[in-house]
Automatic annotation (TrEMBL):
<dbReference type="InterPro" id="IPR000198">
    <property type="entry name" value="RhoGAP_dom"/>
</dbReference>
<protein>
    <submittedName>
        <fullName>Rho GTPase activation protein</fullName>
    </submittedName>
</protein>
<dbReference type="GO" id="GO:0005737">
    <property type="term" value="C:cytoplasm"/>
</dbReference>
<feature type="domain" description="Rho-GAP">
    <location>
        <begin position="10"/>
        <end position="272"/>
    </location>
</feature>
<dbReference type="Pfam" id="PF00620">
    <property type="entry name" value="RhoGAP"/>
</dbReference>
<dbReference type="GO" id="GO:0005096">
    <property type="term" value="F:GTPase activator activity"/>
</dbReference>
<dbReference type="InterPro" id="IPR008936">
    <property type="entry name" value="Rho_GTPase_activation_prot"/>
</dbReference>
<dbReference type="GO" id="GO:0007264">
    <property type="term" value="P:small GTPase-mediated signal transduction"/>
</dbReference>
């Protein structure tokens, strides 16, 4: 996407991002528009926009003719004026851009695996107070994101969840009653749960199909099995479960993904406020260590003196 549309800086409020974020222009243009108009738009991301307008936005940034070389990657960091767009159209285009990303928003099953562990283990810990649990969950999420090696992927993750947290908080804090105490319509508000349902399937995209999850018992939490277990082992497990009649219960992976998306969106402000800068420092240190180790391996292989 950077090759086709270039890259630009996205600016979100300080509570929702650790600073300016480098994004492909297609994400920057749509996210900046949604940061401005999304919180006030009812049903944003849930109500589909015009297919014609969504396709026009997508083609403007990402269309590439077969056999034609890309000679320039500069696009306007705002939406093109000749396309008459609304918030629902831009939201649908934003989701379409995410849907074609390899690995979805998170980019890998290993990061998704870490989020599943955070979600399942902390939910079952009775000794933690709610405040301590929130802080610990936010710290673990920040550390997991901080280990992503790709800078562009980390920036994208921050941009997506920062935007969703901004929109979700506006819905969560919206007034439920008017001045006379009469209830206001709230069914179209996109709070954390509603956003989690929309963006859960986009966390890892098609990779979710190859992810294996089982429940030992309904009360014991999630047990993570190997992502691609050997075929013979799977057949033995299936045969044993059939014979005993008490095999492990299947898990609705989409439902789990929705819960994880909601967890990240809900805790995002805490992640940014207290933990993300530290996790970014850890990621930088990790990358520096990896680079130094690679240089050392090359030097040893070539009989060079390592400094």
């Amino acid at each position: 996407m950077v090759r086709l549309s270039g890259k630009c800086l996205l600016y979100l409020p300080p509570d929702y991002a650790p600073g300016s974020l480098v994004l492909p222009t297609c994400f920057r243009a749509t996210a900046q528009y949604l940061a401005q108009y999304g919180p006030a738009t009812r049903g944003v991301f849930r109500i589909s926009g015009s297919a014609r307008i969504v396709n026009a936005i997508f083609d403007y940034y990402c269309y590439e003719k077969a056999g034609e070389e890309v000679t320039g990657t500069i696009r306007c960091p705002t939406l093109p004026l000749y396309i008459n767009t609304g918030a629902q159209d831009v939201a649908s285009a934003f989701k379409k851009f995410l849907s074609v990303l390899p690995g979805g928003i998170l980019g890998s099953l290993s990061l998704f695996d870490a989020m599943v562990a955070i979600h399942s283990q902390l939910r079952k810990e009775p000794e933690l107070s709610r405040t301590k649990e929130t802080k610990l969950r936010a710290r673990l999420i920040a550390l997991a994101i901080g280990t992503v090696e790709s800078l562009y992927r980390r920036e994208l993750i921050c941009a997506v969840f920062g935007l969703l947290s901004l929109i979700g908080r506006a819905a969560e804090t919206a007034a439920r009653e008017d001045e006379q105490g009469r209830p206001l319509p709230t069914s179209d508000l996109m709070g954390y749960t509603a956003l989690g349902i929309v963006f859960g399937p986009l966390l890892v995209g098609d990779l979710l199909d190859s992810y294996t999850m089982r429940l030992a018992t309904p009360s014991s939490g999630l047990l993570l099995f190997p992502l691609t277990p050997p075929r013979l082992k799977k057949e033995r497990q299936l045969k044993k479960a059939t014979q005993c009649g008490t095999g492990p219960l299947s898990v609705d992976k989409i439902h789990v993904a929705n819960d994880i998306a909601e967890m990240i969106i809900t805790n995002w402000r805490e992640i940014i406020a207290r933990h993300f800068f530290r996790s970014r420092e850890i990621a930088i240190a990790y990358n520096s260590y990896t680079s130094a180790k690679e240089r050392r391996d090359v030097n040893v292989e070539n009989n060079w003196e390592y400094e």
